[in-house]
Amino acid sequence: MSSLHIKYNMKQNLYQYWLFGFVGKLHLASSIFERMCSSGVAPSIQTFNMMISVYGRSQKLDRAVEMFRKAPSLGVPLDEKTYMNLIGYYGKAGKVHEASQLFNKMQEEGIKPGKVSYNIMINVYANAGACHEAEKLFQAMQRQGCSPDSFTYLSLVQAYTQSLNYSEAEETICTMKSKGILPSCAHFNILISAFIKAGMINEAKRVYEELPTFGLIPDLICHRTIMKGYMENGCVEEGISLFESISTSIKGDTFIMSAAVHFYEAAGMKKKTEELLCMMNKMGIPFLRKLEFGSRVKVKTS
Q: Where are this protein's PPR repeats (predicted)?
């Protein structure tokens, strides 16, 4: 390799290093990219991937698409990462059709998707509630020899709950366990949230209480989710019982402690209310007075 070629590669790598440091800063990254091009240093596929991320994160999807199209026009072949990078941003923008078309085009170009790519596309469908499409891709993934992982199943649970297919969501969690993939609190929290959103507080409570049967201890997010459900539905006894069972493990969580104050107030437990407010004050935890209590049953605290 000639010394000239070595110097060229060093310049290219230097620009890429600068870009990497400014991926979250649109104007600086754009300036570096323009300077790179104007100085005669050709961008690599890694450079284009960074610029797609720069514009995608800044919600400049049209410019991200421009970068995607510019690469092959300069003789830089697109790779799987480039396709999936843009597909991910299409998904975040709610452009499911465009994401799906690009995923198909990638395969037509001879690029075989791997597990990560399948997961990204299934997640795009899941967030849009496109349950049928997520199912089809889940099946295609396995036919191509890619084994689903925890993230795959997480997206599938999301797809089912988004399309109100709660029984399928629960069955999916049981299926992954039978396949030797242990579900996490995140899988259950999606289901708990969906039940609460649908006004099915008893089902949400059932799922929350079943976590230990899967060898799981509910995490803080699960605690917050079910507490929110109890707040919205005015479930005073359940809310107090939950708080008193987890109070030593939540480490001063603002929402849960504030919710507990509302529950004690609603139950007329003045002493408990004052004690908890005093504790929060000593810990420097603000009380969320405006939390809605019983919003689903048209009852609010004063």
A: 44-78, 79-113, 114-148, 149-183, 184-218
